[in-house]
Queue: 2 jobs
Job 1
Amino acid sequence: MDLLTELAILVLAAFVGFEVISKVPNTLHTPLMSATNAIHGIVLLGAILVIGTADGFLNDLLLVIAIAFGTINVVGGFLVTDRMLGMFKAKPAPAASAGEPEAERGAPGEASGPGRDRKLGGAG
Amino acid sequence: MSRADFVNVLYIAGFALFIVGLRMVRGPRTAVRGNQVAAVGMAIALVGTLIDDRIGDWALIVVGVAIGTAIGVPSARSVKMTAMPQMVALFNGVGGGAVALISLVEFRDADDIPLESLIPIVFAAIVGSISFWGSNVAFSKLQELRWAKRRFPRFTVPNLVLAAVVLALAVIVVAGADAEIMFWLLLIAAGVLGVTAVLPIGGADMPVVISTLNALTGLSAAAAGIALDNTALIVAGMLVGASGSILTKQMADAMNRSVASVFFGGFGAGPAAAAAAGDDGVDRTVRSTSAADVAIQLSYARLVVVVPGYGMAVAQAQRAVADLAAALEQRDVEVLYAIHPVAGRMPGHMNVLLAEADVPYDKLREMDDINGEFARTDVALVIGANDVTNPAARTVADSPIYGMPILDVDKAGSVVVLKRSMASGFAGIDNPLFYDQKTTMLFGDAKASVSEVTGEVQAL
């Protein structure tokens, strides 16, 4: 693929990245950072591709480390994010309908009143 | 369709799912699903890579993935909620490390690399190395490893010199010096820069640092993608680079800090901290109290606002706190929780812990919502929070945290502070709140103290 096409993709991806994170409630800053963190674990693919063409002991060693690093980044990243988001998992029993409608500051749609009608809680 | 085309179709499916997933993580209702969607995207992209016909050395791939899984899965599963921040730092660091290693091998393996590959390789090496070493320092600081606990001065001038060295080495490598030693030096110099840039930064600012390093790792992955002609890496890397930058800014805004001031000023071990601690002219006596007294104060209040902080997280006191709140609610005391955006070590830290203890979400109030309520609050119960309640942020112009929005705890009728000892908070600044006339201190482990108070409340 030629360089200009790649640069075009790069620029478009940058704008998508800016757009995707517009207004995020403070509560979700950390999980969102953790999710993006898992996504850059995509470097694992890079390491796997390069090891096919590289030769020499040192190169192979470096790439095995890189693959291990990338794997840690991917699986660890997604798992940790999932655990952080535990608080937003629906509880099995939707019995408790506590909570007066709270006035969330100008956060429209899905972001308003997170889990307003149910008690939120992670696995105990 | 050729095999290569099919691989690219899988890549497109993969990064489309990343974008959809990230969008979903933005909203509390869809966040869990969003993370899973992104993970599926990653799996699809991985399959795409594995069927690529350039793939070889299966044994080595399996070994690497096995090692990574053996380390990554247990540590992600077993990490305590309080240690999440440093875990994210660590996972981010290894991502950067992988990028640096890939660029090193790319450089070693090929001679006569065209400029359009060489420049991204060099960029990926520098940024990956900074991210790896910087993240490890961030981890060490948050983990409070002994070597990182010391106070470090700002190395602003040495850092600028170091940055110039890195740049010079980069130019030498790009200009065609095929000497491998130069590339190693480049990696080392960038790594040192990563260490010295993060080392002096205080814990309160660590979220911003980790988010910055996260964005940097994304950028380095995108650069590696250009060098490898791989669209999945380019899109995913740039997506993280861009969204990570916005997120960094939002986090810094929530703390009323600029990203530049995090890295180049403030919060150090400067003389400002000492000045703020010493000459503010407050009466410097603290009054300590007993669990029984606190129980009475709380039981006859109408509104109690709990202000949790890192101390609650360390003591794992969230359940005890929820029990105390339940006991108080039985006596018709209203209990709310005031959540400072950076209470604990990360935004959202307190929400996670309290949700774990089944505290209803509608009882948690963000700073802007609760600050108006403190005037009608009878007792503010501060549990292991320090810097986020420090009135010096409002009044003492030369305090390192001056200007940071705080919880107006001092406006409450009375304040009870649960604290292990009189040690200062992570930012290392003394807190005039503790010397306030209406403040009493209950010293001891937060969990034990809270349980004791609960016992006294129930006995009343």
Note: Residues 57-84 of chain A form the longest helix (28 residues).
Job 2
Amino acid sequence: MNHVSSSYRVQYDVRPAKQVERRMIVDALQRLAAVGLPIADYQYTGFGAIYFIDFILLHKLLGLNKLLSLEQETSLESRVRFNRPFSCIDIRMVPASSEIPNLSRDARHILWLDYDGVIQKGFISDIQSALTILSPGSILLVTVDVEPPEDRDYREVDPSFDSSKEVLGPKHWKRYFEYHASSYLKLGLSDDDFGKSQLILRSTEILRAGFTRWIVARGEVEFLPMFNFAYKDSHAMLTMGGMIGGRSEKRLLTASSISDTVYYRNDFDSPPFEIHVPRLTRKERIYLDREMPCEDDWTPGDFTLASEDVLHYRDIYRFLPAFAEILL
Amino acid sequence: MKYASAEVRKQFFIDMFTRDISLEDCVLDLIDNSVDSYLLKHDVSISRLVFGSNGSPNVVADPGRIEVTCNDRQIRVVDTCGGISRERALHEVFCFGHSEGDELGKLGAYGVGMKRALFKIGNSFHIVSRTSSEGFEVSFKLDEWADRADWRVPIVFVEGAGSEKRAGTSITITELHEEVALRIKEGGVPNNILEDASSTYPYFLGECVNLRIDHTDVNPQLIRLGELNGVVRPANERFEQNGVRVTLAATVAPGQRKSEDAGWYVLCNGRVVVRADKTNLTGWSRELASFQPKYRSFVGIASFESDEPLKLPWTTTKRDLNRESGVFIKARGLMAAMSKPILTFLNSQYPSDTTVEMADIRDAVGGVKETSFKDIAAKPIAGFLYTPPKKKEKKTEWIRYQADVSSLDRVRRHLRRPSMGPGDIGRFTFDHYLKTECSE
């Protein structure tokens, strides 16, 4: 994974869809806490980079105070440490693969493998470790990029690839996925199944197969799906996640109000919850908010907005941040 | 109702079930029986052999002796491991498979090893076994036995050995099958057996039995594990599932390593079933990267222990694992997870740029000290951890720079020392600056 860390590439704090996803996950955790899951005692492990947004949310809104941020980009170390928002966040400059086996077996965990690349061997291997190690009641989230693999990704599969002579297409993307995850793919897939729009499906299948494969050996627990988000700020992304649990955790999920939410997915067969953030002005949002939650067929009277956008907005308005410039 | 015949044919047993095992492994099967006799007789627990008991030495007072001789006329295994009772000889030992009520050993899971070894190796068998109080003798020829419909073998009762020390079993196989005699004539078979035995029984040899092959002592080939206090912490895991106790350890091995020794060692009731595995059986090339020489310091031990050997994940040849075994599948996941940080660590010995960290890591790899499976397993469950040494405060640092020759000459002229070397000029000017410009 020798590409530029996304900390350098992405301004994390102004990605509205990502933020909606985070707020929805927090919302779900609050609902689980309400039925007695001791979420505040969980340890959160994630990739805080230099922004620590998920860490701030979990600490402030849910009271988690065992927090661990992993960063493998050693050149960022001083910035990561400088930007650490709370003293209760522990920072380790190691890849996830080195730290997952060290996660305490006695504690419950929320582990968010929030990758910024297309699925690759290392991700699946981390999922394998996590599902082997995480205690019942723990929550595992995995985010991957579902855009087509780029030239630099593909060069790992075929070092002789020359981007000046050839343009990557479904044929190459198929090879890429087969190289990284062949045993997780269905048999009999053709090049067409790796067209750009299909990659989210393939990624979903791979993650889903990974979740199942590695939990089976544990017998007493299974992977209980909770989240399946698709969203796009710049790149199309996929986040899948759920709880490692047995009967009692299953009961807890059923008892909680999480199933009343629009984003909850208790199986990976249904399509993902797509986070669409309509482009709206502040004035429009204030107007819309007054009517929220609205009826299915409601549309604003004072300006034109497609009813589809209204419905998308209805799904996310509670979770959508408002951005404004602060002059510091 | 009509019935189709579904009976077992003797010839099938003789032909089929000797195919999938090597000559060497057959001899090891006979050695297993001897070791098992000893374990049963002296009630030695596998845990005690592998993990020791509360720090007391493992060695039992009076180890059994096993002598193997192997030439192109006969293969013979003689032991003083306690012998077989008449009762077991009559009802168990010569049967294929164990009966439900049979006394369970530790290394015999399937009840086929001895018979398969006999049939594989030769035509004529002579078995004498004596406990201290009773004995029996069995002699038969395979070709004659195969011709009879009767599955029984003739047995004669003989006197006991008179003492526990002399009690034991001898198995002599003569009229070796042509291909077996040929392989032995070809050479190397006794050496192979010696080599295999030394790597298969490291936890038994010298602990509860002493083994000789053709009058040569077999020394245990120990699986070497390493740690470095405060710097390299081995990973360890354990769990119990369906009556099988699993203990896993993975770390960096001490000393200079050959790639052949690297990988996972899998023990079933203390017997090494898989040695230095680097295949996808133990996660390599699948959950882990493919093995490369830079991982040659990697070593892991997976111990499966059970009072019911059938529950262990070994195959009948005891040279492979049953990949469908639930307990093995679970262990395999953990094995892969605990190996990854070690591979990352070993990988970081070879960064694209030379770094200080790299030197520290190489020092750590080179500096690990030998530890034991027992000591690792006694610690709380933990993952592999490398803690880089605290950076030492440097007392001196290099100053190194290029200077114009003309400038150096100016200094030489000024000092009237035409032969002054550039190093001395550097030192002199630096000292001069310190003296004239810097306060104490």
Note: The two ends of chain A are 36 Å apart (CA to CA).
